[in-house]
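lol so apparently i was supposed to do this last week
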Amino acid sequence: MKQLIRKCVESLTPYPPGKPIEELERELGIFGSIKLASNENPLGPSPKAIRAITENLNKIHQYPDANAYYLKEKLAHKFGLPMSRILVGNGADELIELVVHTFLSPDEEVIIPQHAFLLYETFAKSFDGKIITVPLTNFSVNLPAMIKAVSANTKIVFVNNPQNPTGKALAKEEIARFLNALPPDVIVVLDEAYIEFATDPNIVSGLELLDSYPLLVVLRTFSKVYGLAGLRIGYGFTSEIIAEGINRVRQPFNVNYVAQVGALAALDDDEFVKKTLNLIREGLAFLYAQLDRMGFEYIPTQTNFFLLKTPLGAQETYQRMLKQGVIVRPMDSYGLKDHIRVTVGLPEENERFINTLEKIIS
Ligand SMILES: Cc1ncc(COP(=O)(O)O)c(C=O)c1O
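anyway here it is w/ pyridoxal-5'-phosphate bound
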């Protein structure tokens, strides 16, 4: 008998997504729940994206533009790079998968920081990669240790800046030093899914480093600051050689028409982005003050979520909050058994989270 499932897939487990509100309410027979589990935008989608999508729905009988011309053109203009160096995908998730699919050969090494976004490891393993995990230092990615982990067999290194789930971020100089120290045949994926939320002025995009490191891939998403997680669209910047490789492998219509239209309009929605960033900053100020008052340990964040240490442990805190209709993310699946990850919500959601936390802990 042939082996049915590929050997490298045998040890994988399905990604544990944040629990949908509908599922919780169906299971517990409750109403009015809130979800602070998937780092979504609490304001909803960009209004400009909604308008553009509504106006163009009558075109979905046609295949989308396989090259996403108008979207790439706008991104090229906004970020100052030629269209040939821009990637778009069915979420940044797909771009992560495409990098691995295109470039990783079996048994080559993939270096990943400890507690990182789970899909780096899932995709790398599913293409038979050998995973090297590098411990964090005080919840921050340790780039010098990642350099030390590089061998002649290293093919891809993942760095997430700011990092999910810790919310910590690396300064530009640290990343520049890291890239300089790498051998020139190692691909670096710099995942900037949350970079728009960073408030520390030392944290800037790796976009500025693209010209000095040809094997750098900078990833972004429309899921967070533009509120378009349900559309599934992410983008990225790289060299022509990397983009050309990925274009050989990707599905021709990997970004659907509605997503292209919505994303194009969202890029013009500066007002929505500003409103979102203000909401998150104010939300974090409230949450920090309340958590300080209650004596909780949390990690100050450069994103729209934060890690909270809880005396009950991740699962117990998660389960107790669920019963109160508040969905957070237990971090045991990330190897953090005492932490939950909480997305900043609307003011009333943040207040409900604090009240619920107080109730379940006391
Ligand atoms: C670090 C990180 N990278 C990538 C993604 C995926 O983004 P997308 O929704 O564009 O697939 C996420 C989503 O939560 C994330 O946290």
